[in-house]
Amino acid sequence: MRQNTRNAPAGFATRAIHLGYEPASEHGALTPPIFMTSTYAFESAEAGAELFRGERAGYIYGRNRNPTQALLEERIASLEGGEAALAVASGMGAIASLLWTLLSAGDEVVIDHTIYGSSFALLTKGLTRFGIAVHPVDMTRLETLEAALTPKTKLVFFETPANPNLRVIDIAAVAERAHAAGALAVVDSTFCSPAIQRPLQFGADLVVHSATKYLGGHGDLLGGLVVGPAETIKQIRTVGLRWLTGATLSPINAFLILRGLKTLELRMERHCASASALAELLASHPAVARVSYPGLASFPQYALAKRQMSLPGGLIAFELEGGVAAGTALMNRLELITRAVSLGDAETLIQHPASMTHSTYSAEERQKHGISDGLVRLSVGLETLDDLVNDLAQALDSLRA
Hints:
48% of the residues are buried. The strands form 2 sheets. A 7-stranded mixed beta sheet has the order 1-7-6-5-4-2-3, sandwiched between helices. Strands 8-9-12-11-10 form a 5-stranded mixed beta sheet. The longest helix has 21 residues, at 264-284. The protein is of the alpha/beta class. The N and C termini lie far apart (59 Å). The protein folds into 2 domains: 12-262, 3-Layer(aba) Sandwich (Aspartate Aminotransferase, domain 2); 264-398, Aspartate Aminotransferase, domain 1. The chain is 39% helix and 14% strand. InterPro entries: Cys/Met-Metab_PyrdxlP-dep_enz (IPR000277), Cys_met_metab_PP (IPR054542), L-Met_gamma_lys (IPR006237), PyrdxlP-dep_Trfase (IPR015424), PyrdxlP-dep_Trfase_major (IPR015421), PyrdxlP-dep_Trfase_small (IPR015422). Its cofactor is pyridoxal 5'-phosphate.
């Protein structure tokens, strides 16, 4: 990227669009090319040996790295404020590659009790099969975190905002306590993207993303990212990606995520603005029992959310007065808003966590961890706001008829 004439750091959107690529390096092509190759030729036998020993920079095999992936990694590291990044095939691939690299039998992990269902299953049902102890706690209550930390704790893992009920966790406070115990703080920041939250700035050691969501932004790809110190990312690439998971991101999906980054800042502004309006509608409607949205003054962690997040996000969680039956009726009544899991798409999506994304939790675990059977999660898309308001309002009104 060419230096700007003011000698000032380039802005977020400028880096998302230009960083790491000069059209002149690729025959003047404005858009970076997709490198569709699985293997790479060596200049000589000696050069190949040097690459394998790590004495020479370059590419060896597509499972480890590809130039299209490398550009994505450079950009996301810059946007998150990290030294380096690793692109992999999915968000779960990012988490698994990180965990399998940094943990061994006998280690302990402390997790927040409210996280994505598949992450919860990997940690509490997967890792524990291999001699790793996992302790779920309520990280909004720091005393429960402190009580769970031991000399064997290697990682503290949490989401903020949390999936699906949008609880916000104090990144700086958790990181401080993790570090005091000799552990790393790992944050899943998928619900925000680096456009509105950068956990490394608050003391986190590593950040993971499902790039399937806001980073890609169009519901047409799977991808994951890990951002953190260069040496740790190198270790995760060499061990977690290359040997343990093989969760390689395809060059085409790396290209699509790069394309998504170009509009990320603009899209997040629209997601958040529309979500704020729909949250106000929900909060004022008599059919709604409670709304959880970081942008509402009634949100229990409103001040913390404003401190950590530049915008309140594009997701809303709410419960209806009629419980599960009312939630089912509402979702079936909607005409524009789509019944589907995932989030961060251009389309507005609605789902029922207890029977869908968080069905890996037992009923007892859901009750204990704040995921009620009546909870509904809304991912607000990019449609015309009036159309979303009209669709949600008519579905809510039908519950009172």
